[in-house]
Design brief:
It is built from twelve helices and 20 strands. It is globular. The longest helix has 22 residues. It folds into two domains: about 350 residues, Rossmann fold (3-Layer(aba) Sandwich); about 70 residues, GMP Synthetase, Chain A, domain 3. It has about 425 residues and is an alpha/beta fold. The strands form five sheets. It has an eleven-stranded mixed beta sheet with strand order 4-3-7-8-9-10-11-15-14-13-12. A three-stranded mixed beta sheet has the order 18-19-20, with helices on one face. Helix 2 crosses helix 6. The site of zinc ion has 6 residues, from loops.
Length: about 425
């Protein structure tokens, strides 16, 4: 039996890579109290703001050449602003590693980190194993759309099987990031079988994936009565996790699901612990704020190459005031709305893309708010708020939706008096709260 912990340590030493030191530091932080963590956080904020005001041309200009000490004095940062800015946000003399965002909730753009921060990110990613009660070195599967090349040596050391979820696609439309909205969509069954064979042989203790990817694979597990695709722990990220999706995945893969809130820019912002009462924000790494409309605003406290300061994520969430009984000093948040790339599974097993319905509805300027709920497996209800949408337009929309959804699932459009939601548009593939 190879002692992968010892190997990791040796490799870290040989490569002079600090990721293990960072990991041990983060592990220590897991045991700190809320106020101890707040001290670390406020010191990091001060240091970051001083650095950005003095060294990063983009922020110097944004701060009006002033040294700003308080986050609240700093205007928020949008994705479009960063896309337009490009390299300007970066401190130029550092050796850079380029990354690309997915572009599913806003424009895709490139951003940069340096080698040292890359090591810290690795440590942050190792910490999510702790929260999912899995030892580093136990076999696991990474099943996400791959945007960057994955390090094979790291895969060997951590016993990681990498499967590219983007291959689960129809034509040019990856399962998890559908872009071509008019196309009928079903994944390639041959690839699904290959994935099942590889997962079965790997005996993973943990699978890291997106809800929609595991819903799709789980539907085939049930349809074909596939045996042996089991993982005791499942970390889900990238999309809002709804109650029925969690239940379906837990039952199908026979494991415990841990919701993780992260983005390409910040892979591990908050995560559930074993109590599943909300997501613990890693306040030693991030500062999270909620805007008036509940949009989550993130400041990464450690990225000095391309600082993200008060960055608007387009995701919605809220603070949970109760303390978690696990005793962690990391505060809890809930995520109410995020990336819309979820799937609806019709009773006949066909996948329907959420994005199709949202795009049809959003073309109508008269609709102020809407909510789509799969109330039963064979019924999709679309609630809209609009004073001026004509009946014939409503009928046309319902017809378009039904044409796409097919016979096995009904679609109804109803005008609602109001929807208690902060956004102009809101989409739920499934309810995130139980319907009475
Ligand atoms: Zn907890």
């Amino acid at each position: 039996m190879i002692n992968r912990h010892a190997m990791l340590k040796n490799i870290a030493n040989i490569l002079n890579n600090p990721f293990l030191d960072y990991y041990h530091q983060l592990k220590k932080n897991n045991t700190l109290t809320k106020s101890e963590l707040e001290i670390i956080q406020s010191n990091k904020i001060k240091k970051l703001l001083e650095y950005a005001s003095k060294n990063i041309p983009f922020y110097k200009k944004k701060f009006g050449n002033k040294y700003l000490q308080e986050l609240k004095d700093i205007p928020t940062l949008s994705k479009q602003e960063l896309k337009d800015t490009g390299m300007v946000a970066v401190k130029p003399e550092r050796k850079l590693i380029k990354k690309t965002t997915s572009g599913t909730t806003g424009p895709a753009f490139m951003f940069y980190v340096d080698k040292d921060f890359f090591a810290l990110e690795l440590a942050r990613n190792l910490r999510i194993f702790d929260f999912a009660q899995t030892e580093v070195g136990e076999p696991w599967v990474l099943l996400v759309p791959l945007r960057d090349k994955k390090n094979k040596f790291f895969s060997y050391l951590t016993r990681r099987l990498v499967l590219d979820a983007a291959l689960l696609s129809f034509g040019r439309t990856p399962l998890c990031c559908p872009k071509v909205l008019e196309e009928q969509f079903q994944p390639d069954e041959k690839i699904i079988k290959t994935f099942f064979d590889k997962i079965r042989r790997h005996h993973p203790k943990l699978i890291y994936s997106y809800p929609s990817t595991l819903i799709a694979l789980g539907t085939y597990i049930r349809k074909w009565d596939v045996k042996g695709i089991i993982a005791k722990k499942i970390i889900l990220s990238g999309e809002v996790l709804t109650i029925p999706a969690r239940k379906f995945i837990e039952e199908t893969f026979q494991g415990e699901v841990f919701d993780l809130y992260g983005t390409t820019e910040f892979p591990a912002i908050a995560q559930e612990c074993k109590m599943h009462k909300g997501l613990h924000v890693f306040t030693d790494s991030y500062f999270i704020e909620f805007a008036a409309d509940n949009e989550i605003i993130v400041t990464d406290l450690d990225n000095y190459t391309m600082p993200f300061i008060r960055y608007k994520t387009s995701d919605l969430g809220h603070l949970i005031k109760e303390k978690c009984s696990c005793g962690s000093g990391f505060p809890l948040i809930g995520i109410t709305h995020g990336r819309v790339s979820d799937l609806i599974v019709a009773p006949n097993g066909q996948f329907l893309r959420a994005g199709f319905f949202t795009s049809i509805i959003e073309k109508n300027k008269e609709i102020k708010k809407y909510q789509i709920v799969q109330e039963k497996q064979d019924l999709l209800k679309i609630y809209i708020i609009s004073n001026s949408l004509s009946d014939s337009r409503k009928n046309f929309l319902a017809k378009r939706c039904r044409e796409y959804a097919g016979d096995s699932i009904g679609v109804s459009i109803e005008t609602a008096p109001d929807i208690d939601l902060p956004l102009k548009q809101f989409f739920q593939t499934y309810p995130t709260r139980e319907i009475e």
